[in-house]
Amino acid sequence: MLVGIDIGGTFTDVVALDPVNGRVFLHKLPSTNDNPAFAALLGLREILAQSGTDHARLEGVSHGTTVATNAVLQSRYARTALVTTKGFRDVLDIGRQRRPDLWDIDKDKPDPIAAPGDRFEIDERLDRNGDILKEPPAAEIAALVPWLRTAGVEAVAVCFLHAYASSRHEERIAGEIRRRLPGVYVCTSAEVVNEFREYERFCSTVVNASLLPVMDRYLAELEGGVRDLSGKAFLRVMQSSGGTMSATAAREKPINTFLSGPSAGVIGAVAVAAAAGQGDFITLDVGGTSADVCLVENGQSQLRLDQRIAGLPVKTPTVDVHTVGTGGGSIAWIDASGLLKVGPQSAGATPGPACYGRGGTMPTVSDANQVLGRLNPDTLLGGRLKVDWEAANGVISNLAGELNLSPTEAAFGVIRIANAQIVQAIRVISVERGHDPRDFALLAAGGGGPAQAAEVARELGIRKVIVPANPGLLCAYGLLHSRQRADFSRTRLIPVVDGASGAISDLRDDVLAEVGAWRLREGKAPDDFEIACFGDFRYGGQDSELQVEIGLGAIDEVVAASLRNAFHDAHEANYGYAARAQRVELVAIRIVATGRQPRYPADDLSAAGDGRPSATRSVWFEDTGWTDTPIYQRSSLIPGTRMDGPAIIEQMDTSTLVLPGMSFTLLASGVLVLEEAE
Which residue range or ranges hold the Hydantoinase A/oxoprolinase domain (predicted)? Predict the structure, then answer.
């Protein structure tokens, strides 16, 4: 039995898969934000009981987590020291000498995490080739440990200039700290980001160091709980790149987990869309706290090589997901100008929206949907969560009074603003990057995505909406379909001129050796992984690079020339011109090791019902007002049957809104497709 567990701000989603027969079991429970591992382990035990599975059959757990992200956003990381080259202690403050907002001179810079008083300089120096210019003085090394002990730090980031070219000085200092201060967590920049650009490298390493105690404690509890259930079960953690890593690797590089859950959602969306024959689509994953959108073209999402967390640059491969603070629990409020706003503040899991009946007193998007008749008025989560309709109506009525509107007008105002924020997010990843959203389908996921997708699609001119079989658990589902992945990189500035093939080949061999050492630590055979090699190239004098595949074959002068020409072609494709007479540089080698794609038998999705509505209730639509609307249970829909809207389709993890003028069809794969009438 394999289990995927995704922890969100409001709910923890659990999906169990029996790979023998393809049977899938689903579970959803409130998150425990003060201790996320508690809900994860509780959900694991409950889904094993639900499936009737012997604990000994539990083979593995894949986990998507927001622990690292929340720790940085809420400043709950460990006190962290920076040990760096003399003269470079202020790199974290100087940065790129850019203000966070060009036109706002009062906007604060991001918190550098390592405070100025927690930075220690050592008079060492390497040149850009890694050759030693000055050894670290023995007296300064001797003084470092007592200083760290007095400072009382929990974690240390060791970041020396040009450590990407040689890590010997970093390793020496880190080894001394580990030997003499065994309770302090330590990482070096060469271990975290083996690339040039000191500001990004220093920031990434400091952030990583600050999260080492947080993630170590969290994963120790989670891994221990999994092991108690089944001694043979492994724990893997989702990375921002869309691949999983071992719990040990996650403890060493927690910065790789920042967009863990959203990346899993994209992987799940790709699997769902492939079953529906759709290669070009935009994902819309609306959870309790936020909405995540991602553009997928030809079945592939874009991958960027860095991201920003709390304003800090973090160098780690990341699925190109754009997030806005608009979810089902987002709070509606009125600003000082009397304007209605939605989010980014969220009611979270506790107390949650007022309609959850847990004491929530602020109006939210879920409460607005409740008042408009779009959610079941009695229960949610398949009957496990009783709805407090009176509380929802009360908070929306209070909001309406402040706005001098009717409750219906106020509720739809909340929905329109939430939809507008999602529409803008989709335009960022589509229109602003040269894509017409009308050329794509919209794939709705999360507990709130299917309730808002139809209106969002209509606003953007998108004519098809895809709703997975279990959209509210898509991230957990994606965890089961994710492949193990590890990324390796190393910077060397190599002019791609005649005679450069040897240097390029040597650099690739160095990184391949690092891949081999990692594979042995993971206990994997060579055939367990696919290896791909890329290079970052640029014109001499440029400050940005383009990636070109290098491959694993022998590199001679002919291959080197072909790489140079491939970069010219890539530059022309991306920027409209190529300076073919200008010198080309290789900046870095990147190697990606990816596990084999898991293959599972399909679950039986045959309908148990007759396809008829289970009820009718009054639902409010912008075009028709209050309308008697058929309510369908998704489990009773018959594959292949096409029906016209309006309609509400209910299931354990979500409700799908079908607008007047739309139709819906359940495909044989279990995917629900909404389409605009011709």
Answer: 202-486
Average pLDDT over residues 136-143: 95
158 CB-contact burial (10 Å; exposed 0-12 / middle 13-18 / buried 19+): buried
- HEC sequence for 300-349: EECEECCEEECCEEECCCEECCEEECCCCCEEEEECCCCCEEEEEEECCC
Residues 6+ apart with CB under 8 A from 303: 241, 242, 317, 318, 319, 320
pLDDT at position 601, please?
66
Angle of helix 501-522 versus helix 557-575 axis, rounded to 10:
80
Alpha-carbon span 540 to 341, nearest angstrom: 48
pLDDT tens string 443-471: 999 989 999 999 999 999 999 999 999 89
438: DSSP letter = G
Give dist(CA 629, CA 655) in Å, integer: 13
Q: What gap in Å lies between CA 200 and CA 193, rounded to an integer?
A: 9
Number of other residues whose CB lies within 10 A of the CB of residue 601: 12
pLDDT band at residue 606 under the 50/70/90 scheme? low
Per residue in 243-269, pLDDT (tens digit) is: 999 999 999 999 999 888 889 999 999
Q: How many helices (DSSP H) and strands (DSSP E) are in the chain?
A: 16, 37
Q: Which residues pair with 626 in a beta bridge?
A: 620
Q: Given this model, what pLDDT does residue 604 score?
A: 54
**Beta-carbon count within 10 A of 175 CB:** 13
Residues 291-298 have a mean pLDDT of 94
What integer pLDDT is reported at residue 307 of this predicted model? 87
In 624-671 the beta strands, taken as DSSP E runs, fall at 625-633, 642-644, 647-651, 654-658, 662-666
Positive or negative: CA dihedral 273, 279, 281, 284? positive
Rounded distance between C-alpha atoms, residue 146 and residue 197, angstroms: 30
Secondary structure element (H or E) that encloses residue 169, with its range = helix 168-180
Place of tokens 């920027």: 575
From the list 21, 24, 220, the residue with the least C-alpha distance to 13 is 24
Please state the pTM of the whole predicted model. 0.87
Kindly list the distances between the CA atom of residue 81 and the CA atoms of 165, 172, 248, 382, 598, in Å, as whole numbers in the listed order: 23, 17, 23, 49, 42
Using the 8-state DSSP alphabet, how is residue 56 labeled? G
Spatial CB neighbours of 239, under 8 Å, sequence gap ≥ 6: 245, 256, 257, 260, 263, 316, 317, 485
Nearest in space to 215 (alpha carbons), one of 110, 66, 14, 4: 66
Indicate the Cα dihedral angle 540, 543, 547, 553, nearest 10°.
Answer: 40
Whole-angstrom distance, CA of residue 452 vs CA of residue 415: 8
Please, what is the Cα angle at 286 between 283 and 291, to 5 degrees? 80
Greatest CA separation for the chain: 82
The DSSP call for residue 65 is -
Q: Which two tokens stand for residue 317?
A: 């491969």
Distance of CA 17 to the CA centre of its chain: 22
Burial class (CB in 10 A: 0-12, 13-18, 19+), 499: exposed
Distance CA 231, CA 328 (A): 38
CA–CA dist 594, 533 (Å, integer): 11
User: Which of helix, strand or coil describes residue 257?
Assistant: helix
